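ok so i was messing around last nite and threw this chain in just to see what happens. nothing serious, just curious
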Amino acid sequence: MKTRNLPVIALLLFLLSTPLCAYIKTTHLIAMRDGVRLATDVYLNDNPGQWPVILVRSPYGKNVAPQDEIAFGFLTNLGYAVVVQDTRGRFASEGVDSLFLTDGWGAQQDGYDTVEWIAVQSWSNGKVGTFGASALGITQYLLAGSAPPHLVCQFVEIGATDLYAQAVYPGGVLLKNLVEEWLLAQGSAYLLPFVTAHPRYDETWQRLDLKTRWPIVNVPMYHWGGWHDIFLQGTLEGFTGAQHLGGNNARGNQKLVIGPWTHGTWRQTQQGELNFPENSIMNDLLEVLRWFDYWLQGKDNGIMSEPAVKYYVMGAIAENAPGNEWRTASDWPPAAQATPFYFQAGGGLQPARPAAAASSASYVYNPRDPVPTMGGKNLSLPAGPFDQSKAETRSDVLVFTSPVLVGPLEVIGPLKVKLWFSSSAKDTDFMAKLTDVYPDGRSMLIADGAVRARHRLSTAHEDLLSPGLIYECEIDLWSTAIIFNRGHRIRVALSSSNDPRFDPNPNSGNPLRMGQDTVVAVNTVYFEAAHASHIVLPITNGDVAVEENAGSAPRAFELQQNYPNPVRHETSITYILPRAANVQLAIYNTLGQEVRRLQEGLLPPGRHAVKWNGLDDAGKTVARGIYFYRLQANDGVATRKLILLKPE
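result:
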């Protein structure tokens, strides 16, 4: 949820040639149904008249930046009135901030009351549209659930429709960093005990969940979001819910745009550690005007004759790679074949169901040593597609990787992991990540998700574990649209932590944040015929066939190119063993002299990764230049070149 007021609508001044006329700004204290007054700024054309109104309700302050205020004046010149309001308990408004609870359909309905106040003003023609991003998008979705008669349309950017599942407790696990840092930034840290006192989906969260109100939602909405956005699922569910379950004016009148963006980054190409093509940039402001011109001013600009859905299909950041293109559709999601990829003994990931023989893998999860967060759908942390290869080398992370793809594989739609597990603890978490493994060894994050074991059956109630028993759960990774390129691999990594993105589970079974004790858990994942853990990928194009009778272990000895290369501080060297082997991995200079022995000994089949930090066996920094790394595994030998640069 953004901490600045509004997108810089002043860009419109450079996109449209209409001259700017004078405007009038007035401030009002509007009484809500319980008498609490909300501070509200009104921007009007200095010529008398009645106008359709664009309403923005914000917890970030109605006193916008100067360029935004100029833009509001510009909008008044285009035939709109603009109303900007501080939500309850924020800035100049009276009352107590209650984390959006007064913005929807409860005892207080501040959005509804504001719309209906606008409708009877002398400068209003009775038509109200709303606009805003992030928290301002949340206030819009909640307003739609109260269905004020004079609300005509909405333009919702990166908002959540279900605050429990999409913003606070996805899978029943607290989004620690997002919640704590956002509340702290707003000066509302006092609300954190309220949040942690409601770890289950209860009546409080039902008041903040628009799916309980779909038949009441009755306006056209433009839903704008990103594949790596914190509220991606809210954007998708906002569209599908209103499009198919809403009232007469909502059904069939929704629009959806999804780009490759993190939170609010649609005007840049850099997303996480990937730099997408220029075509990934979109100007939302022109779409905002087109939307309001159609619904509030009745201009037939063709927007509703265009396909309902526009989405970006991501691809590898490589020359001539398929994907990285916009597509359109009449609905969401597109038709796809839900295809299970099963976890295999030895770390494989294949469509072939595993053999009947009992098979599992265990790891030790220590809440005091959680897996660190590296990218993902974050707000104040680095966000987007980051390389996960460093985390994948930990002993408390299970990694399952497909064979190298012989052709592009297109995955578009919802992602689910079905898991059979047991634990030595009364409660624990399971985390899943889907990544795109590049030929150079990078494992770039596509999507992730989490589930708290006590909420495996329902987030509305708790069911603790009996240690040692096998249970079933589902991890929701939300959705994506990506083409895995030829020569890439598909990977799923499983663990029990992702900190500080998610609040680490202490495994004690105690109520949330009750007590300081932690329990080290031994968690086991099963992948056998009776308990065939897998990920379900929505395949829309491409061949998922693998070699007949292919085993679950890797079938080829392979030494991959180190990453990053050139090397400034540290690099990762990855190799794959088809069977257990006596391994020797070493660094050599151009004279053939051994510089550093990195690894030696008997190792199991699978993928292995080793770090080198530019030091020799004596712990001294070696000179910059060209080096070679050589892997010998039984009778197999492979050598690759790397370039070492001095640190900046």
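not much to say yet. Residues 2-17, 546-553 have pLDDT under 50 and may be disordered.
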